[in-house]
């Protein structure tokens, strides 16, 4: 068995692809009409398909999982995020943990939790 990646549910795959490309440089590998595979093992699935396949509704901002990225120039990342996506909802603004790592947490446009931290 091989772990392939993480699937997140989104309202619109094209808009989510733009966000993840703009902010993290991820690129589209496969587009299966509402199911996209991106670089770095991230998969996007349209909410309508998820709900049809699973018979379950989505709870945005559930805070039960997060996507984690590392970025050395975190100040520039936060500036870019605020410039390109000014309506971003932050969980916590840029902060420093007791072990010295700087992090920011926010929701993507679909309510999926993201953490970006400096390398540890």
Structure description:
The model has no long low-confidence stretch (mean pLDDT 96). With 120 residues, the protein is α/β, with parallel strands linked by helices. It is built from three helices and eight strands. It is globular and about 45 Å long. 14% of the residues are buried.
Helix and strand arrangement:
Layout: E1 6-10, H1 13-24, E2 28-31, E3 35-38, E4 42-46, H2 47-54, E5 67-70, H3 74-84, E6 90-96, E7 102-107, E8 113-117
Parallel strand pairs: 1-4, 5-8
Antiparallel strand pairs: 2-3, 3-4, 6-7, 7-8
Largest β sheet strand count, sense and barrel closure: 4 strands, mixed
Radius of gyration: 15 Å
Helix percent reads: 25-40%
Based on Cα principal axes, name the global outline.
globular
Strand order of the largest sheet: 1-4-3-2
Order of helices and strands: EHEEEHEHEEE
Under CATH, the homologous superfamily of the largest domain reads: 2,3-Dihydroxybiphenyl 1,2-Dioxygenase, domain 1
Q: Tell how many strands the DSSP assignment holds.
A: 8
The N- to C-terminal Cα distance equals: 29 Å
Structural class: alpha/beta
How many domains, in number, for the residues? Answer: 2
Low-confidence stretches: none
CATH architecture of the largest domain: Roll
Proportion in β-strands:
25-35%
CATH fold description of the largest domain:
2,3-Dihydroxybiphenyl 1,2-Dioxygenase, domain 1
Mean of the pLDDT scores? 96
Q: Identify the CATH class of the largest domain.
A: Alpha Beta
Q: Helical stretch count?
A: 3
